[in-house]
């Protein structure tokens, strides 16, 4: 199948197998290796990219489903070509030590960009729930959450303090907390 | 760098290749120590445990790079909580692994964890001249028993003294259910 898509502002096209995943198209056909494939089962989020501005897991999307659309990978962010953290989100990950081994980072950063785009007033709980689809083994998420708060224009110390002092439910909405039996 | 009395490391590195070959062997092991305290909330209806707060003291001696050291502690604490609450490799009777993907194996996401309170403490060891002790696994060692004990403490009024790790909602619910049945008889 012949497909065309804009990747990081550049036109790309290829004749691909219908079963080809977007993650493989980006890595093998376009040659952009920042997008990592961690689990192949849509659990870990390391392959997250932006499709027309929305975060998607590119190991679950077929390349043909992205036909005629626009994809942004970590390579498409400001400063990526020079290896400098110039984009506000990469700069915040750099400043807050929001990574250790770095494998989850491209997916985390793309998810964070989408999260910040979709919610102008993030707090710690919203960031944690917003990053639920991205797994990290090294950092315990502490500094990743701080980095996303910084990139969203929040004071991470104040946000962490507010969350620590909050009595808000820390379970998902509609999750039973035992009220039914009272 | 010829005829220089004071040379910065950067100047020296620019002038010639810096290389040191040395072997150092610690005569005795060092002992980092610390204490972790965990606050949890247990939903008695579903058995779900939520970590509300964890405070960790890890004394690794003098710290060269506080940024990396804190990162190691954060990651270790998260892994320790996960061991207490979620993570387990399960096999069936024939040895077939049942937890082969992240859909079956409970690695925590950001939503399952709180931010961590780290408390600084620096006690140099006398075993080496710099006083260094080490940090790598400190987080995982303290946080698992702290989390496990917090859950058991929360359920102690029901007469529960032990639940095998990991404290998944099913296991906690079963323990609560068994304890309340015992109390009803």
Task: Give a written overview of the molecule.
The complex is a heterodimer of chains A (182) and B (185). Chain A has 182 residues and is α+β, with helices and mostly antiparallel strands. Helix content of chain A is 31%, strand content 13%. Chain A has helices at 22-29, 88-95, 105-118, 124-130, 142-151, 156-165; strands spanning 2-7, 10-15, 48-51, 54-57, 70-72. Chain A has a five-stranded mixed sheet, sandwiched between helices. Chain A is elongated and about 55 Å long. Chain B has helices at 9-15, 66-85, 138-155, 169-184; strands at residues 33-42, 49-59, 117-119. In chain B, helix 2 runs parallel beside helix 3 (138-155). Chain B contains four helices and three strands; from the N terminus they run αββαβαα. The N and C termini of chain B lie far apart (87 Å). In chain B, strand 1 and strand 2 form a beta hairpin. Chain B is elongated and about 90 Å long. The model of chain B has no long low-confidence stretch (mean pLDDT 91). Classes of the chains: A alpha+beta (182), B alpha+beta (185). Chains A and B meet through helix 4, helix 5 and helix 6 of A and strand 2 and helix 2 of B.
């Amino acid at each position: 199948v012949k497909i065309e898509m804009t990747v990081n502002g550049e036109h790309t096209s290829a004749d691909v197998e219908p079963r080809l995943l977007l993650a493989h198209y980006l890595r093998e056909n376009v040659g952009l290796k920042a997008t990592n494939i961690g689990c192949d089962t849509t659990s870990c989020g390391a392959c997250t990219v932006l499709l027309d501005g929305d975060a998607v897991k590119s190991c679950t999307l077929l390349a043909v489903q992205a036909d005629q659309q626009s994809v942004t990978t970590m390579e498409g962010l400001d400063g990526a070509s020079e290896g400098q953290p110039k984009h506000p989100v990469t700069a915040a990950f750099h400043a807050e030590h929001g990574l250790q081994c770095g494998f989850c980072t491209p997916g985390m950063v793309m998810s964070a960009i989408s999260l910040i785009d979709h919610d102008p007033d993030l707090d710690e709980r919203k960031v944690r729930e917003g990053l639920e689809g991205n797994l990290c083994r090294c950092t315990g998420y502490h500094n990743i959450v701080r980095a996303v708060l910084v990139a969203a224009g929040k004071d991470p110390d104040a946000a962490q303090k507010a969350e620590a002092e909050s009595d808000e439910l820390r379970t998902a909405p509609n999750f039973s907390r035992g009220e039914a039996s009272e | 760098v010829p005829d220089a009395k004071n040379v910065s490391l950067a100047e020296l590195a620019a002038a010639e290749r810096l290389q040191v070959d040395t072997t150092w062997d610690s005569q005795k092991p060092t002992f980092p120590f610390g204490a972790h305290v965990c606050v949890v909330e247990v939903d008695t209806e579903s058995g779900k445990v939520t970590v509300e707060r964890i405070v960790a003291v890890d004394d690794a001696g003098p710290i060269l790079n506080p940024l990396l050291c804190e990162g190691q502690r954060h990651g270790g604490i998260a892994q320790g909580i996960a061991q207490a609450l979620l993570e387990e490799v399960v096999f069936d009777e024939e040895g077939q692994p049942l937890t082969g993907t992240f859909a079956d194996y409970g690695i925590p996401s950001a939503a399952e964890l709180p931010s961590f309170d780290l408390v600084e403490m620096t006690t140099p060891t006398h075993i080496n001249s710099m006083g260094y002790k080490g940090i790598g696994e400190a987080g995982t060692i303290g946080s698992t028993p702290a989390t496990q004990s917090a859950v058991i403490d929360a359920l102690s009024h029901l007469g529960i003294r032990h639940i095998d790790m990991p404290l998944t909602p099913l296991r906690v619910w079963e323990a609560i259910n068994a304890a309340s049945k015992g109390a009803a008889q």
